[in-house]
Each structure stands twice: as C-alpha cells, then as structure tokens.
Specification:
The protein is 81% helix and 0% strand. By secondary structure, the protein is mostly helical. 54% of the residues are buried.
Length: 399
C-alpha cells in the first residue's frame, strides 16, 4: 500500500508544479507552492511524533491517505469551472500536514517489524517500493498532463490515495504503539510525557545530545535549504531553457526515481562495508557535483543521467540516515525523535525554495545550479570536521 501512496506522491510531485506553471507561467510561484508544502510539514512536525507514539498507527495511515485523496480531488473538480489558483495555495499546505503524519507514522512501525540488524535492509525495501512507484509516476503524470492537462493528473493522484487507504485494512501488522512507547516507566520517561512542547523538546534534546545525530541534523538543514527547490529548477530548465514538452519533464524526473531505486537496492551492502560517515559524506559530495553539472549541459539525456546520479547518491545517504536514527533511538522516543528530526532539518527548506527559484529567475538556471551544487559539496565536506568523520566503531544501538 505504500507503493500506491508513493505513486500518489509522485503524481503530485510533477503535476502540481506543472499546473502552477501552466496557469501562471511563473517559476517563482512554483517555488512558493513548494515552500508552502514545506511550511505545513514543519508545523505538523510539532505534533506528528506525539500522535504516532500515542494512537493506532493503522488508523493514522488510513487517515493520512484518505484526507489527501479528498483534498487533491477538489483541484480537478474546481478546474472544470475555471482556474482558481488560490485553491492550490489552500490545499497544498493541508495535504503537506497529512503527508508528514504518514511519513512519521510508517517510520515508527519499521523497528517493530524487523530486528535491528535488518533495519537498513528493511528501509531499503521501503525506499525501493517508493522508487518503483516513482519510476512510473512522473512519466505517467507528464503523459497525462500533456494529454489531458495537469488537473487530470492530480485527479489520478487522488484515486491512488483512496486505493492505498482501503488497502491498509488488509495489511497485517501490530498497529498499536507498544507498551514501552505508550506507557513511560522510569521517572525520566515520565518527565518526557507532558504537553506538546515538552514532548517535542524531548525528541529535540535527544538529537542534540547524540554525537552523530546533532551534526547530521545541522548539516541536513543546510542541505535541505539548498536542494528543496531542485525539482522546480529542473522543470524550469526543461520547459523554458531546453523548450521541451511536459512528457519530457516526466521522463527526466523518472530517471531521478530510477536513481532512488538503485540506492534502495545497494545501500544495505554499502553500509555493511563502510562507516556511516563515509557513506553519507561521499554520497552528498557526489550529489552536489551532479547538481552543479545539471545547469552546464544542454542535452535532455544528460540532464536525466545527472538526475539519476543525484537521486541515487542522496537516496543512499538518506536511507543510511534514517536507519542510523532508528538504530540509536530508544523505542519510547522514536516517534518524537523522528518528528523533531524532520521538522528541524526541513525548517529552512521553504525559505531555500523561494531563494533558489528567485535566483533562477534572476541569474538563470545554469548559474543557480552551479552555485547550489558547489554549496552542497561544501556542506558535505564540513561533515569531516564533526562527529560524522570516518571512525572505526559505529555508535552502539540503544534499547
């Protein structure tokens, strides 16, 4: 069912920016819509971990998919009577909240399904299903957008979320938070149960105290600021600088999801051989070099190949990061730590999307990609001066 939910995400990943571009012709407005999604995710991040640690996770997953189905269905229905661009600005943030709830909830389920030594492999499988849906999703979205318009693609997006919500009913897993998740036993755990502010801070405090999660969170905040608007840059490059149709946008973004699929297939083997710091720093450096090169080429196949490499490298780094967090975080804190981690490291994303797309409008995509890519490389290399630097022993997982 995650595959269908991911298929819906991949449709909106392409269809929403295309709909905004078709309606307004503005790359800046594309960036604003992306920024609104990020802001909503940040706000929801304050609550998602608390909710995932306390309520039935099956119902939460169904709620998140069902709500996104209804929200996205409003867009094609409204476009039958006109082009109310304001509706996108109203719907996208709310959908972003439910997307964050879904992501946090499914992450908290993973450690209860597999042993600690299988977490990276399990995350790879989950990431693979997302990538598999993403391989078809962008291409299909581009094709539907070209044939029937972006609004029709968003209608299909809504249908995938509906099927996913129903399908979760037939998936067998223990959806109730485990006793050590829901019932604090020690005085320290009781102190971490309180209002939303206290519970969110419990996750943030754990991140700050951990020698690897602290620098990782800070570096990912900078990385997110720089790359949050990358999809908008690539779409603008293909549509305006290379003058290609919507279907080409879908094919290029599909190449990126193929890179994600490759990452999911190889990450477990890579992590068995290399320390986390080596994997994460190397992956982000290569991703930065790829982004810098995207703006320098004028060939669609080369842009697609560079997107594949970018998403493969960031996928390997991202899966490794998620697995590390699941391995070292105590079970009773996992929802709140996940929520805090995503909220903090995505906080600069909306601002970054606006800055990067504004830079593209003023300086051009070539210069912007070059600057973004080199900045990403600098961020990754900074990791060699922190707790992420290569080390012989990995941190011991906590129970």
């Amino acid at each position: 069912m995650q595959t269908l939910s991911a298929l819906g995400d991949s449709f909106s990943y392409v269809a929403l920016p295309l709909l905004v571009l078709h309606t307004t012709g503005s790359v800046l407005q594309m960036g604003l819509v992306t920024a609104l999604t990020g802001i909503a995710s940040i706000v929801m991040g304050l609550f998602a971990g608390v909710v995932a640690d306390r309520f039935d996770r099956r119902r939460l997953l169904m709620l998140a998919d069902g709500a996104r189905c209804l929200l996205y269905l409003l867009i094609p229905l409204a476009w039958l009577r006109g082009e109310p661009i304001w509706l996108i600005y109203a719907i996208v943030p709310v959908a972003g909240c439910f997307s964050m709830l879904f992501q946090v909830t499914y992450v908290t389920v993973v450690p209860s399904l597999v042993g600690r030594d299988q977490i990276t492999k399990a995350n790879g499988h989950l990431f693979a299903t997302y990538a598999a849906a993403g391989v078809a999703g962008p291409a299909l979205a581009g094709f539907v957008a070209s044939a029937a318009g972006p609004a029709a693609a968003i209608g299909i997006d809504a249908a995938t979320f509906a099927v996913s919500a129903l399908g979760i009913l037939f998936v067998r897993f223990d959806s109730r938070p485990r006793r050590d998740d829901a019932e604090p036993r020690t005085e320290g755990e009781k102190a971490q149960r309180g209002g939303v502010r206290e519970e969110f801070l419990a996750g943030a405090k754990f991140l700050w105290a951990h020698p690897m999660l602290r620098p990782l969170t800070l570096l990912l905040s900078l990385f997110t600021f720089l790359t949050y608007g990358l999809t908008d840059l690539v779409i603008f490059l293909i549509k305006h600088q290379l003058d290609r149709p919507d279907t080409t946008v879908g094919y290029v973004l599909t190449a990126g999801t193929v890179g994600s699929f490759i990452a999911a297939a190889v990450v477990a083997r890579i992590r068995k051989r290399l320390a986390f710091g080596v994997v994460w720093i190397s992956g982000v450096v290569l991703a930065g070099l790829s982004i810098a090169t995207i703006g320098l080429v004028d060939s669609v196949p080369l842009v697609g190949a560079l997107m594949l490499l970018t998403m493969m490298c960031t996928g390997i780094a991202g899966i490794s990061s998620m697995s590390l967090r699941q391995e070292v975080t105590p079970s009773h804190l996992l929802g709140r730590v996940t929520s805090s981690f995503w909220t903090i490291h995505t906080a600069l994303g909306p601002l970054g999307a606006g800055v990067v797309t504004a830079a593209a409008a003023g300086l051009g995509v070539t210069t912007t990609c070059l600057l973004v890519g080199l900045a990403v490389v600098a961020v990754a290399l900074t990791g060699t001066l922190t707790g992420l630097r290569p080390r012989r022993a990995e941190p011991t997982p906590q129970s």
